[in-house]
Amino acid sequence: MHLGKVMVVFGTRPEAIKMAPVIKELKKVDDIKTVVVVTAQHREMLDQVLHLFAITPDYDLDLMQRRQDLYSITSGVLQGMQGILEQEKPDLVLVHGDTTTTFAAALAAFYQKIPVGHVEAGLRTHNKYSPFPEEMNRTLTGRLAELHFAPTDQARENLLAESVAGYKIWVTGNTVIDALMETVRADYEFDSKLAGINFNQRLLLVTTHRRENWGDKMRDIYQALLRLVDDFADVEVVFPVHMNPTVRDLATEMLGGRERIHLLEPLDYEPFANLMNRSCLVLTDSGGLQEEAPSLGKPVLVLRDTTERPEAIQAGTVKLTGTSEEHIYRAAHMLLSDTNAYEQMARAINPYGDGKAAIRIVKVIKDFLYVRIGAQI
């Protein structure tokens, strides 16, 4: 029986990582035709993940432009998706998380009355400007979606509070754990790009990119890193710098050429995940790393004022520091100097799943398509 066609749409590296296990599971189902569309809201970083997980897109909008803004991305996705949806006529459009691609693709599907499935649904800070624009991207996508794949019970409760019907929500765990378990290896060997790093030192893995942190907040983050390196002779900072020029220019200005601080080009997911496994501590304003690092026993300091992932804070795997130089410095200093405090975070149980989220999601999709076909008959 032909159950129907599922169109998976994503545009950034984090989306690709988290959707790869779902695509892999969908392609195991002979009765479902899977169509992959990438918008390339991010280009180079997206391509790295496509190569790693052997994903060949059926359509590529190739939208990325230098210093692109939210208006151009949103309109580009909407216009690009229109013709693809009209041609393919999918039975379900599957999107992920909180990017501009996510919201615009869901809106494009809604305009053609095509059901939307939302992977990693229900995360909320309840502050529409933090993270910006991700909080509203995720919330608005939730209003458009028919199927909600919540990673945790708390995410499910958030959706119920917004009057989403309970029978439309499934708690699946987070697919990033699926991807991570496929990728990290104890015997992984790094290439020459990381040759200058002393893996016998304690490594602080750093990522920053959030729009709301641009400017003085990011300066404070980088100043805290400088102080930590000065205080601990056995610490090295490893910082794969985001491609955005605003981030790169400031990172180079403040951290470039400093002893024991390594500014790297963005890494492919495979070496990045294995680098995280070798690190001592993760400092990030990313969302996904709050889920990944605890699976590897790595404490995470979140360089933001809010987080849509409160489960990690409650579990004790993550600490929200804000962007104050002093707060970041003190939190990291304590973990680097107090073994008990470090072990308490490192050994806390990760609340984001068991690596079987994609299997659960595809089962729901199969049931949904089966019912949909039966209703049409």
From TrEMBL:
It holds the Pfam family Epimerase_2. GO terms for molecular function: UDP-N-acetylglucosamine 2-epimerase activity. Gene3D superfamilies: Glycogen Phosphorylase B. Its EC number is 5.1.3.14. Coiled coil: none annotated. CDD domains: GTB_UDP-GlcNAc_2-Epimerase (cd03786). NCBIfam families: wecB. Belongs to the UDP-N-acetylglucosamine 2-epimerase family. PANTHER family: UDP-N-ACETYLGLUCOSAMINE 2-EPIMERASE. This is UDP-N-acetylglucosamine 2-epimerase (non-hydrolyzing). It comes from Syntrophomonas zehnderi OL-4. The lineage of its organism: Bacteria, Bacillati, Bacillota, Clostridia, Eubacteriales.
